[in-house]
Write a structure and sequence with these properties.
The protein is mainly β and 137 residues long. A hairpin with a 2-residue loop joins strand 2 and strand 3.
């Protein structure tokens, strides 16, 4: 699985130019890249997942609020001595690939939009696969 992230300077040096980009904010040039992380594990019978669905992202965007988050992440990372990153993003749509036992209003294969309303969203839209709470009708 991959996440879009702000890179620490040392990690920026290790990632090839073709695999990263720089976003200009004011006088800053902030490094971003897709970082490979462990796959999301979603057991449909786990009681912690009973009201959740697992989505595979199909579309993703950054908004104005994300620019502030990116800038603040860079301010914390720019002087960090080590390979690390800060995942970003909050807006996405995707396909339901797994559902918890209590989810009745969504099915595998449905396309949905996550409610990323700040400050009430959980975990933003930071990875290719993501657990979210199913809408209760």
């Amino acid at each position: 699985m991959r996440v879009l992230a702000v890179l620490s300077p040392s990690l920026d040096k290790k990632i090839e130019s073709k695999d990263k980009s720089y976003i200009p904010i004011d006088s800053l040039k902030i490094p971003l890249a897709l970082i490979h992380v462990a796959d999301e594990v979603f057991d449909t019978h786990d009681t912690n997942n009973k009201d959740l669905v697992l989505l595979k992202k199909k579309g993703f965007s950054l908004n104005y609020r994300d620019l502030g988050i990116i800038e603040n992440a860079w301010k914390k990372l720019k002087d960090f001595d080590g390979d690390t990153y800060y995942p970003i993003g909050s807006d996405f749509c995707g396909e339901v690939v797994k559902i918890g036992e209590n989810v009745k209003n969504l099915s595998v294969g449905d396309f949905v939009v996550q409610d990323g309303f700040y400050p009430y969203s959980v975990d933003g839209g930071k990875s290719e696969f993501q657990r979210i709470t199913a809408v209760k009708n």
